[in-house]
Design a protein that fits this description.
single chain; 117 residues; mainly alpha; 3 helices
């Protein structure tokens, strides 16, 4: 009996799973970023930039005209928390009470909206 040097290799059939079915990852796949780009630009413009700018302004002694600003660090926060007229148990309690009332009103409304959807 003679044999050749090449052996026959049997490979199992490729099974297509549900997760991979219909997923195309060819040359056009990277263009999906163009669909996300407008959202990212608007999100950065209207959410990220105001947050960063507000944090920056809170760490300076800026006034409404924006002139003569200098970095003061956490002094603004320290001054606000040390002022007995601004932070009292009454004002803190009022904030918690108002927040609780708002949650009490809005939460059942959100249940109705979710139920209608």
């Amino acid at each position: 009996m003679t044999t050749t040097g090449a052996e026959t290799v049997v490979r199992p059939a490729r099974v297509r799973t549900a997760a991979g079915a219909g997923v195309r990852r060819g040359p056009g796949f990277q263009h999906g970023g163009w669909f996300v780009a407008p959202f990212l630009v608007l999100f950065a413009l209207f959410v990220i930039w105001p947050l960063v700018r507000g944090l920056h302004l809170s760490l300076t002694d800026a006034n409404i005209s924006g002139e003569g600003t200098s970095f003061v660090g956490l002094d603004n926060y320290r001054e606000a928390l040390d002022d007995p007229e601004r932070v009292t148990p009454r004002t803190a309690g009022g904030t918690v009470l108002a927040d609780g009332r708002l949650t009490t009103v809005l939460e059942p409304l959100s249940w109705n909206v979710i139920r209608l959807a």
